[in-house]
Protein: Mammalian ependymin-related protein 1
Organism: Neolamprologus brichardi
Amino acid sequence: MHRLLLVFVAAAGACVFVLPRMDASPAVGPCVAPLQWEGRWVVYDHSTGRNSRAAVSYDALNQRIRVLQQHKKHTPCQRFFEYIYLYQSMVMFQIDQKTKECSKIALTEAWDPFDVPDNSTFEDQYFIGGPGDSIEVQEWSDRKPARKHETWVGVYTMKDCYPVQETYTRNSSVTTSTRFFSLELGISDPNVFTPPSTCQSARPERMVDLEC
């Protein structure tokens, strides 16, 4: 599970059609997610209805994440950023993709990996897709008997424990849903976690998304 998605301004809704398993039963225990991968995600912010697409490099071994915002069409006044989260140093760099302006922001929450915590509650096991073209997944949450509602729900593949979707709720007005896709094991270029030289004179405040 990962709280970063509440910090990373978001949005992108998508429906997943599933074929339920009528014989679904509690798993032996949570799977072990990959520690290093690259791919893409779409984050949907339920409070704003906005989508945010990005290329992602994830390195749990060194507790760092690089997020490169992507855009498919020209959006007037919209700025696109690269984010480098370095949790061992508890700092986040925000870099304007066009101007290379840089902000350095202190992180206030501890590292929270994309995985299934050992104390998670098994919810379901099913296939996403249809006959002959499907993938089997498990759904986990942080739901506990003494609490009515869960604040985190994660869907992970059965075979290799890749993240498929995570939904995280902080309160009744802040919820994000994230879909992961095109994941590949490993980090092709470790230098993506190194801030550019412009960050040597980084500003202390976060840059805004719109410039006009």
The domain at 4-201 is CATH 2.50.20.30 (outer membrane lipoprotein receptor (LolB), chain A). The chain has one domain: 4-201.
